[in-house]
Amino acid sequence: MSRQPVVFGVESSCDETGFGIVSEGKLLGQGLASSASQHAAFGGVVPELAARAHLDAAVPTLHLALADAGVELSDITHVAATSGPGLATAVHVGLASAKAIAWSLGVPLYGVHHLAGHAAADTLDHGPLPERSITLIVSGGHTSILKVTDLVRDPIVHLGDTLDDAAGEAFDKVSRLLGLGYPGGPVVSRAAATGDPGAFSFPRALMKGSDPRYTFSFSGLKTSVARTVETLERKGEAVPVADIAASFQDAVVEVLVAKALRACRDENIDTLVIVGGVAANARLREVAALRCAEAGIELRVPRPSLCTDNGAMIAAVGDLLVRSGAEPSGLAISADPSAVLHGAQLPLEL
Length: 350
Ligand code: KG4
Ligand code: ZN
What we know:
Elements: E1 7-11, E2 16-23, E3 26-34, H1 36-39, H2 47-69, E4 78-84, H3 88-105, E5 109-113, H4 114-126, E6 133-138, E7 143-148, E8 157-161, H5 167-177, H6 184-192, H7 219-234, H8 241-267, E9 271-275, H9 282-295, E10 298-300, H10 304-307, H11 312-323, E11 345-346
Parallel strand pairs: 1-4, 4-5, 6-9, 9-10
Antiparallel strand pairs: 1-2, 2-3, 5-11, 6-7, 7-8
Zinc ion is lined by residues 114, 118, 139, 276-277, 309.
């Protein structure tokens, strides 16, 4: 009888060092370290600092994950690691750690697409995905509406992506404009909580009937916020940070939810999954819940701590790959910092 798989997941694509342990769809435990505070002074992630921080955090975070899961290193049967996309130096550190663990234990290694990890995170909270779903991925580097069938067996179909900034990137840039710090999402949403979302009417891009139905653009919105702040400052007026944050946040949320629901309707799919760092946003969760209830669509959003980068989501993909009988990627796998999402496993063999 074969042993029950215990999959160790490694995430290091940006500023979070994440290790997670998943067995048969169940999260056993995880460890997480973040170098966000080291980047705050620069207003964004400095790749070299992130890579060094991953190296420093690797062994302590590995011990945290094992202790949290109550397993020994020798209980691990498979290793999965983000091999792309992400900051090249950062991905390399996690992938090298994953190779070292897999090699020393003599267990198979799977390369995982980071964004497939975000989608898989939801299975840890809400069980297997349905046969068909629309997935809205909203992270710091990507914003896409996807048609997902079997996450690890089938190609992932992009219905639409962003033409310029990702949703999280827009939060980070607006945060910088408002002097709120990095990462922008949590601080902008905190500021927005006391603001009036109707105070400023910021643009909702690509929402006209003739526009591409699922494509996003957030750079005009960011520019509009910048112009507003500049104009107020030029006139010597106080910048109403909370009102600007709330108005900006609503502009992003409205477009995201409208286009995701449009995809559900067009494709006749009744499950919407929202994942990625921006899915931790309370306003997005609230508006999406409301609109999905009205439309009779089941909404699935993982708990906020599984929306932002973590190792559990990568272990979740690994666990699905193992159970689907996928061939391991092998120890020779290289990092692919600009991997496009077409399938859950890297290198892609669909
Ligand atoms: O998925 P993620 O952790 O990393 C990437 O794969 O990029 O997403 C990070 C992004 C950042 O841009 C961050 O500002 C944003 O997610 N974010 C949020 C919130 N928490 C994180 N955006 C809006 N509201 C939040 N509460
Ligand atoms: Zn991410």
